[in-house]
Amino acid sequence: MNVKIVRYAKKHNLGNYETEEAELTAEISPSEDPTAALEALRREVMAFFGEKPRAEKPAAKPPAPKMTVSRVNEALGEDAKLVNVTVDVSDGFITVKPREFLGAEAFKRIASKMKAVDAEYVSAGKDSRFTIKA
Fold first, then answer.
1. Cβ neighbours of 13 (radius 10 Å)
2. Domain of 114, in residue numbers
3. How far apart are CA 110 and CA 79, in angstroms?
4. The pTM is what?
5. DSSP string of the chain?
6. Residues 73 and 129 in one domain
7. Is residue 64 part of a domain?
8. The sheet that has 93-98: what strands, in order across it?
9. Residue 41: count of CB within 10 angstroms of its CB
10. Mean pLDDT for the chain overall
11. Does the residue 60 lie in any domain?
12. Neighbours of 48 (CB within 10 A)
């Protein structure tokens, strides 16, 4: 596509149901980048209205790696021997359940490690557990 003219227009709200419109048009050579030219027009119009240019959008974060039982065991470290780690494929969760009563100190230690892997605590008496989206 051979772009020859780029145009940027913006309506600015003045309040009391009034608006003001500014429009800039530029003729560009075939060697110029139309996107860069349009961005330059946008900055000029924003400056006209006294608005600050929008910050560049941050690069999208790469998707978090899928949680696995081995990653959960790695996060637990030595405390892995105190809990059972199971995968319930039917609902897509990894379940971390204490083998026995942990006591306040061990529970606090395990809870902080589970928080680091985005686990949620489900308080259900003897069936209490941490669940992590697999």
1. 10
2. 69-133
3. 7
4. 0.50
5. ----EEEEEEEEEEETTEEEEEEEEEE--TTS-HHHHHHHHHHHHHHHTTPPPPPPPPPPPPPPPPP-HHHHHHHHGGGGGGEEEEEETTTTEEEEEESS--HHHHHHHHHHHHHHTT-EEE--GGG-EEEEE-
6. yes
7. no
8. 83-88, 93-98, 129-133, 120-122
9. 19
10. 85
11. no
12. 13
Query: pLDDT tens digit string along 69-125?
Result: 888 888 888 888 888 777 565 678 888 888 888 889 989 999 999 998 889 999 998
Distance, CA of 61 to CA of 47 (rounded, Å): 31
Do 43 and 90 belong to one domain? Answer: no
Tell me if 128 is assigned to some domain.
yes
The amino acid present at 103, given as its one-letter code, is G
Structure tokens at 127: 């069936």
Joined tokens for residue 32: 């110029």
Decide if 61 is inside a domain. Answer: no
